[in-house]
């Protein structure tokens, strides 16, 4: 059975060319190539004090052209105003000769749009396009998070595939958003991650839960990957806790955890999704953290299987998958022992549950 594992051994660090003791600027530069099957994204989102929200991203290769050789750059910007009305466009493509992606640091230019950053500060510029624009500054409030000190998962008998997530989980956001014909001064909190991969998510993973929680004193990232059947349903969890005062990562899982869930069938997708998830992460050194989440509201439902055209559904059946996607508004709670006392903090969060596989008792849902 092909395997999935976190690249967290000395030989892995040497192969990747990284220092496991510190994150370097080049790690947020371009990490992949333009070969068919590769994908890379610099992603940013923010929840703003005026009630608006924004999602922005930069791709060297359009999601629609991943199997082609060469770069097909695009950007996306999606703004939700305080009343819930949306603006922007998901995929805006530009010629390859109008784009550049530095390998030295995050320095990305796609047409007239750009993002430059160094894990501490990021300047994002979206020129007027699709009747919106943005000039935002992200200032990191916590250190970068690399699960296993690499942020890289290897899949396959010979590590032939990779899947990643390198993040700056909490940032102070300032700047301007332009939509509905007006420029708005904004402040708030935001998230950044950088992913690069050479395997389709629906091939690699049976499901994942991804989200982040901000409490008064701590910041939490969870990205609970469970591999597809061909990779033996192997769980590869990303989980980290950062101290808001120092910005330091004070806990990251070594991969050992238990999970208890209460499932609720989603009517459109026709599968049981966790209504409640209770994680206990316990490392080999005895340190332990509990993280619970319970969703209160469905924000997005993507039925990608039952509503698919017959030809597409037949392809999914041949692959043995039944893709569906949920995004939730939820409550999250963090709990751990510190100096002989139990620390418990809670907050609101938004998380996604991407459920590509068929229901299977081996899959740890």
TrEMBL record:
SUPFAM superfamilies per record: AttH-like (SSF159245)
Record-annotated AttH domain positions: 78-196
Pfam (any one): CrtC
Superkingdom, natural source: Bacteria
Alphabetized InterPro entries for the sequence: AttH-like_dom_sf, AttH_dom
Protein name as it appears in the record: AttH domain-containing protein
Organism (species): Ligilactobacillus salitolerans
